[in-house]
Amino acid sequence: MPQKKTNHRRPLHARFFETLNTLSYSQLFLIWGELALLFAFGYFLFSTLGDVQHHGPMELVNTKGIWTRFFNSLYYSITTATTIGYGDIVPRGFSKVLASVQGIAGVFISAVFVAKLVSHRQEIALQEVHRLTFEDVFHNIREGLFILRKDLDGIIEKAETHRRLDTEDWDTLEIAYKQGQSLLMEIPDFYDDDNHLYTIDRRREQLLHEAVHRTLHRVNHTLDVLSKHRIDWVSHNQTVKELRELMTVVAKITPIWRDKSPYDRKEAFEDILHLKDSVTKRIEKSLPTKN
Fold it and tell me: If you compute the radius of gyration of the chain from its CA atoms, what whole number of angstroms results?
């Protein structure tokens, strides 16, 4: 048996609500004002035309002067739309229907307006939370890379002073390389396509460039000092493994970083890749050749 086609189109009322939510505050207020004016004409006509005057509010029917009656009709329309209802003008006949419909429409538009206002405030709060989160990540990356460089400085000082490294020093070096991997992997998150609430500015990107560049330069210098004092860093397989992985991370994230960056700073990325290549070549050159 042929299956019935399921209608996946959204219900009309759902699309209507979505459309209202997309309107600006000025557009919603304009709709509210147009409705108030439209219903004011209705009350005015019911209280003016002889055949239907019995459907108009008595207070409006007894009002002398066309303009006075119209402005009183507008006043009654506004008090009805805002659900104030002072009671000085009371509907009768078909004008009761008009007042009921207007009251419902006024409450509905006011509810949409308030919901939109609350949603806007929530969006502002979300943007602020998102901004603070990324600011925290930014500072953590720079601080983490600074700590990494301080660890490398300690290794350099130990190598120059004692001409050797102990087990704790090699562990520190291994952990530093691991920390660098973790920190650098977070940089592309600043340029994620799904991130619409935060954009890193030019100054902060420059600070990130400098932090990464200094860190890679310090790694190079560390290897220089170890080699200079004949400290066999190549034989420590785990440390070399983490160093190679760090260079792999740099090679992976730098092109992504460069392509997604909205700022023209190609030289900074080229310097980072140049330092990465320098470390990689040093590793490959120092490792024993396999027969």
Answer: 36
